Amino acid sequence: MRICLIANPQATHTQRWATALGDRGHDVHVIGVRNAAFENATVHCLSPRDPQSTLAVAIAYVRLGLRLRFLVNAIDPNVVLAHYTTTNGVLARLARLRPLVVFPWGTDIREEPDHWKRRLREAVNRWVLRRTEDIVVSSRYLRERVLTVTSGRCSPPVVIPFGVDPTAFTPTTRAPDSPEFRIGFIKHLRRRYGAGTLIDAMPLVLAEVPTARLIMAGAGPLEATLKQQAAKLGIADRVDFIGRIPHSDVPDLMATLDVLVNPSLEESFGVVLLEAGSTGLPAITSDVGGVREIIEDGVTGLLVPPDEATALSDAIIRLGLDSSLRRELGAAARRRVVDTFDWSSNVAELDALLTTTVRRSVGARFASVRAVASRMESIPEVNRILRPALVRSWDAVWGLAIRLRVRRGGSVQELDLDVGKLAINLNDRGVAWPLIRYREYEAPERLTMSRLLQPGMHAIDIGAHVGYHTLLLSRLVGETGRVVAIEAAPENYTLLRRNLGSNRATNVTALNVAASDQEGEALLEVDHRNLGAHHLVSERHDGETVAVTAQRIDEVAGDLDLRPDFLKMDIEGAEVAAIRGMSTILAAPDLALLTELNRPALQRAGSSPDALLAALERYGFAFFQIEGNGEVRRSSSDALLRATAHRANVNFVAAKGAALVRISDAAAR
Length: 669
Prior knowledge:
By secondary structure, this protein is an alpha/beta fold. Strand 6 (134-137), helix 5 (140-149) and strand 7 (158-159) form a beta-alpha-beta unit.
């Protein structure tokens, strides 16, 4: 997928997102009014000069919008992602770029005093956000701000945090005999980040903790003023201004600190708090904006009122005198970051959202045709005679296109997808056709998996088909994790092994067995038009069947010494039997299972959706339904059963323990 980011190339967050999307195999282009160079992305500079007056700004925006339009047309991206609403979002709207996803950062949509600046800012935000396909925000606080500013007349904002790589920000412990109590501040030196309040608090801190030293890492317009303030208070020798440091050096600096202080007067999220938490460094922060989504007072850090030096000093003194509390808060913060804010999961979520946006935009091009078709369906004669003919005609046209492709390259061909290189059988209508048309498959389920899986986890893909989801799971769990892929059909299993080898998925073990509650030989009925619709049968009949080996998943996990954190199961009605064969796994306290309620398939297997849900409820699972737009919402067995009355397939997640926390956070977004 070719992705165009309209953003400041010099911003750390821009570089992180662009590099990460490039790492996932996308062709990433970054367009901005400044220039920079970094890996895995092509940077285009619109203009190196900054306008000096309001009139010049207006003229510049029109000029830059035209230049942006021509440049994006030349790049021809699948999707455009504009970071920061009131600058790059405006440029993207002026250039009429589609499909457009906008990513407000916080200061672009923050609350202002009630005067003309606030009204202008909100008007600009409404103009941009009401006319974009999707909106991404980093916190639930920002989501509420977007909905407030737009009066709810916009695409539902999706929360994807600016997470942290826990392998880059690792826990460190300072020597217990360190001569100083080191306090860190890592922010721009601007009024809204509260550096002046922290300087005011330092004399009170030094009175109780004489070894305290403040490290100010950052640059900005208040630097000279803050130095004068420190000198006036007589603490200049206890405050070190070290200037702005590269983001790559932040972990090393945090390793030298005892506490991080973030006294912001406003904060949309607070990535530096996540970075501190990932290193096990306790944090003190103002109770503003979205920080409560990161810091739980007294559990993962300390919260203080904004712009109150006395309250801030009390919190710093408390940690300065209690090293055990510092360790306790730091350890809890690390656990929360790893469980909820892992960077690789956040990138996978954004990747899946962009893929869904592209798919919807392709479908939107034919919206008028569908509208006409919908009106025609209201005519009984048309619905009875013409609709089946149109369906047959479409199948014939698409089938002809597939046959021509098969004639050129054979029935098995390799596609370059975001999950990697995937060899598929082009006669497999259920999977091959969507992949060829949309370059992705089951986007809502992919997004859900990216929210649940983290590096180092173990997963089992039951009904792996040719490995599309297996490759995604392999990426999500990383080199330190493990995946077991279960596929019963011999033809699919051959392609599965090929795809795992061509993508060097060394953390995956593939097994050619059928999941069941019994061991031994079983019969698999084959569907040559949809190779993902093979299903177990109890006896031979008119359909083509092949003999396969059945095995209990408990036995598979035991043989491989695997304790799974996540299961994906899609086995065409055999789910209830498979559940009976994994009682040990399902009894684990922390587990997530993604599967479907396929009423026709379950009934064909002699079971029902009621039996499937009842079997899972006995193990203490909570249910979440996966919506078509990728959102998940808390559900119940009764609600899921009602949904099957209107839809043949209902995809859902059953979760408990830590997995329940992760999926609940996703539902809250």
